[in-house]
Amino acid sequence: MPRSVNAVASRARRKRILKAAKGFYGKRKNVYTVAKNVMEKGLTYKYVGRKLKKREYRTLWIARINAAVRQEGLTYSQFIHLLNEKGIGLDRKVLADLAMNEPESFSKLIASVK
Predict the structure, then answer these.
(1) Under 8 Å CB-to-CB from 114, ≥6 apart: which residues?
(2) Mind listing the domains of the chain with CATH numbers?
(3) 113: pLDDT confidence band, cut at 50, 70 and 90?
């Protein structure tokens, strides 16, 4: 009995990896085993990068809020504490956007919290 191999699926699997590795340098783009290893590593970096992006943006927002709040004579931690006491539920993304693009309304918000 002849050996049965699903060549169609195997070729499709290899083709998918090589298509994803398009644009890579040297053997990374046209040797399947090398391309597969590089793609796996790249996908890992991609996954980790999505997590790091969230951290970096949060750090940026906190720095922007802190800079704007210090001009009004408060620190970041004091400001966040006062916001929580007043029950104002604005997140850091919105606060940073207010501090950057609408400083007058942000200063009114600080005044209302004080």
Answers:
(1) 74, 82
(2) 7-113 (1.10.1900.20)
(3) confident
